[in-house]
Amino acid sequence: MIATSVVICAHNPRLHFLQRVLQALREQVVPKEEWELLLVDNGSAEPLSERVDLSWHPHGRHIREMAPGLTQARVRGILEAKGELLVFVDDDNVLQRDYLAQARVIAAEHPELGVWSGTVRLEFEEPPPEWTRACWQWLTAREVSQDVRSKPDLHTPNMPYGAGMCVRREVGLVYHDHLQKSPIRQLLDRTGQALISGGDTDIALTAGDMGMEVGLFARLELKHLIPPERLTEEYLLRLRRGVMTSFWLLQFLRGERPRRLPKGVKWWTKFIYDSARKRGRQRRFYIAETLGKRDAWIRFAGLKRERRN
């Protein structure tokens, strides 16, 4: 019986990273007969079925999803999965050997949980510049020292990350239904080179809508492989802008509004004034954050206009 489904969503992945991901899964202590492996190829230029061997897994499957975006790939994985416990693994996540085993234990111990994850440690291909340390949290770095559970909301500090995220299938199916009815939800998460995120948070909030909790657990550990190009200032500025766009899209989706909408002469005057008071990298990241908020409002307002017309 398949109790757990591991879903890897990939778009033109770095093959040497993906091979490490698969090797870590191959070494899991849970017998392979008890879980399935779904590699969802989200429109890679060269089909992964022609380049990645899954024959070592008795329940390994290639799935080709051509609708662009991480959200579409996740949803395809949810619909294809047979297990009641879904474990989402990015194509650069190397799981600890007992990750699946611990995920299953947590599911049995805490039936009130809908979504959970754990520690994410960054592994860099090259030594990172010291100034980037303050940005590592945007790359999902997280150290979980003790278990924590709570009802999720937009301001929950312990929201599970998408890396290694464990989701009960019933939550995934409700999320899928909500997604079909909400164009704004479909704006969340990566599409091509866009660095918008937030789909994992939306899934966690869906669990809360169902009366379930979310959690973080110290016994769940994985490595997030980071190539040098993700440590450049240009990339981190784009990432920060995308993260802020995602955060505010979720705020708007949940009915929250900023005190001052990011538009109009007064807003632009304050933005220019605040920018001028900062220097160098601090100014550039402030601009990225503020424009991310404005991007969210433009997208949200545009969808509202479309619905009225």
CATH homologous superfamily descriptor of the largest domain: Spore Coat Polysaccharide Biosynthesis Protein SpsA, Chain A
What structural class is derived from the secondary structure elements?
alpha/beta
Instruction: Specify the CATH architecture of the largest domain.
Output: Alpha-Beta Complex
- Per DSSP, what share of the residues sits in E-state strands of 2 or more residues? 15-25%
What is the percent of helical residues?
25-40%
From the alpha-carbon coordinates, what is the Rg to the nearest angstrom?
20 Å
Poorly predicted runs: none
Q: Regarding CATH, which class of the largest domain?
A: Alpha Beta
Which sequence of SSEs, written as H and E, runs from N to C? Answer: EHEEHEEHEEEHHEHHH
In angstroms, what separates the terminal alpha carbons? Answer: 50 Å
Number of helical stretches of at least 4 residues: 8
What integer is the average pLDDT? 92
Give me the CATH fold name of the largest domain: Spore Coat Polysaccharide Biosynthesis Protein SpsA, Chain A
Tally of discrete structural domains: 2
Number of strand segments: 9
Which of globular, elongated, flat, extended, rod-shaped describes the shape?
Answer: globular
Largest sheet: 9 strands, mixed
How is this structure best described in words?
The chain is α/β, with parallel strands linked by helices. It has two domains: 4-230, Alpha-Beta Complex (Spore Coat Polysaccharide Biosynthesis Protein SpsA, Chain A); 235-308, no CATH class. The chain is 39% helix and 20% strand. Strands 1, 2, 3, 4, 5, 6, 7, 8 and 9 form a nine-stranded mixed sheet that branches. Helix 4 crosses helix 5. The radius of gyration is 20 Å and the shape is globular.
